[in-house]
From TrEMBL:
Catalytic activity: (sulfur carrier)-H + L-cysteine = (sulfur carrier)-SH + L-alanine
Annotated ranges, domain Aminotransferase class V: 9-100, 115-390
One Pfam match: Aminotran_5
InterPro entries: Aminotrans_V_dom (IPR000192), Cysteine_dSase (IPR016454), PyrdxlP-dep_Trfase (IPR015424), PyrdxlP-dep_Trfase_major (IPR015421), PyrdxlP-dep_Trfase_small (IPR015422)
Family, similarity comment: Belongs to the class-V pyridoxal-phosphate-dependent aminotransferase family. NifS/IscS subfamily.
Record protein name field: Cysteine desulfurase
Highest taxon listed in the record's lineage: Bacteria
GO molecular function, one term: metal ion binding
């Protein structure tokens, strides 16, 4: 096989390049405005002003108020803070109620929610493992809400389980593995009607499709910068003040006491600038993304008979196409395509010598073998026709090389 001329990067859902405009916006806060934003001298105030401006811009682009924003090290930390922090705040409330007003033999009043966490069956490990941690250390019940064959959460089951009481429900806005956009607005209304707060993992959605935190009425929402052009290790949790959250990090009390640690001012500037660029002209860009995505889906399905598009065919992320392929292992296909200069993802957790089936596909009812044949193509800029043809040809060649067709 000849060496490819250039790589075609189709793994934007994993991470993406940082535009030079974002890097340039950060530099002054690394070289000149480098003060600690908590310091009271002039340099500190300069940094604090930059942080405030970044927070306001970032909040505005997510339909949030500046006071809703807790900057974190990314989506994983934001998800952990929401899930563990809300559950531990409940435990603190219960302890306070017990010690302050009631003899220990008296049960807590009925308005204290059950120690249950509802999570959709397709949540990212940052949510699923946080809920599992609450089970392991605090005996919380973790209730998995099933999804249909296109990964939409089952709202009837959600309503039934919410009615039984829960500390929190977690619903992702868009699925990372199959791109399905979830009915989060309806899920929030259902949970709130039962008095259950809702955390939304919007890591794949923010900067890609419109996110309006206040209109959605979610209680908390997680965002990650490296999905929309900011450097890795930057993100935020948006949180309404009506929901109590116990901090995970103890220290100087930055970020309203919810995330101690000196703030990354240059990082916050990068988050705000990258998000603003991603939101500017989003509707127009998404129209082009959708048309090149749909052209890619047709080309791939034509190139490899028996290919199956996974997730919702219409209501899916604009630059996201995911498939299962006949008679092939997705990991082997991924490696072969990589050698042809096409970089994609199997959408699953990979460890040395071990290829796990993507959890979302299993939750959608696929067999392990079918789920292990999955590949995900994700991009933030519309694809050229020549690129689409190159992908289709490479796939056909890879499938032939792997004796899958
Ligand atoms: N949630 C979802 C849906 C994701 O896709 C990811 C990362 O891919 C995360 C959470 C974790 O975000 P981060 O990489 O910023 O920790």
């Amino acid at each position: 096989m000849s060496e490819p001329d250039d790589e075609l990067y189709l793994d934007a859902a994993a991470s993406d390049a940082v535009p030079s405009s974002v890097i340039e916006a950060m530099i002054p806060f690394l070289t000149e405005g480098y003060g600690n934003p908590s310091s009271v001298h002039a340099s500190g105030k300069t940094a604090a002003r930059a942080l405030d401006a970044a927070r306001a811009s970032f909040a505005a682009d997510l339909g949030a108020h500046a006071g809703d924003v807790i900057f974190t090290s990314g989506g994983t930390e934001a998800d952990n803070l929401a899930v563990k922090g809300i559950a531990l705040a409940q435990i603190r409330r219960e302890r306070t109620a017990r010690t302050s007003s009631m003899p220990s033999s008296v049960p807590l009043p009925a308005h204290y929610p059950a120690h249950r966490i509802l999570i959709s069956a397709v949540e990212h490990p940052a949510i699923a493992q946080s809920a599992q941690w609450l089970h392991d250390f605090f005996d919380f019940d973790v209730v998995s809400i099933p999804v249909d064959a296109q990964a939409h959460i089952d709202l009837d089951t959600l309503a039934r389980e919410a009615a039984r009481g829960a500390t929190l429900a977690c619903i992702m806005m868009a699925n990372n593995e199959v791109g399905t956009i979830e009915p989060v607005s309806r899920a929030v209304r259902i949970c709130h009607a039962a008095g259950v707060p809702v955390h939304v993992d919007a890591v794949q959605a923010a900067g890609t499709i419109p996110v309006d935190f206040r209109a959605l009425d979610a209680d908390t929402l997680a965002v990650s910068g490296h999905k929309f052009g900011a450097p890795k290790g930057l993100g935020a949790l948006l949180a309404r003040s009506r929901v109590a959250i116990e901090p995970m990090l103890s220290g100087g009390g930055q970020e309203h006491g919810l995330r101690s640690g000196t703030q990354n001012v240059a990082g916050a500037v990068a988050l705000a600038v990258a998000l603003h660029q991603a939101c500017t002209g989003m509707a127009e860009r998404n129209r082009s993304l959708v048309s090149s995505r749909d052209a890619l889906i047709s080309a791939v399905c034509n190139a490899v008979p028996g290919t199956n598009l996974t997730g919702d065919p219409v209501n899916r992320l604009p630059g996201h196409a995911s498939f299962t392929f006949p008679n092939v292992n997705g990991e082997a296909l991924l490696v072969d395509l990589d050698a042809r200069g096409i970089e994609v993802s199997s959408g699953s957790a990979c460890a040395i010598g071990r290829h796990e089936a993507p959890g979302t596909l299993l939750a959608m009812g696929m067999s392990e073998t079918e789920a292990k044949s999955a590949l995900r193509f994700s991009f933030r800029e519309p694809l050229h026709n020549a690129d689409i043809q190159r992908i289709a040809q490479a796939l056909r060649a890879s499938m032939t090389a792997l004796h899958a067709m």
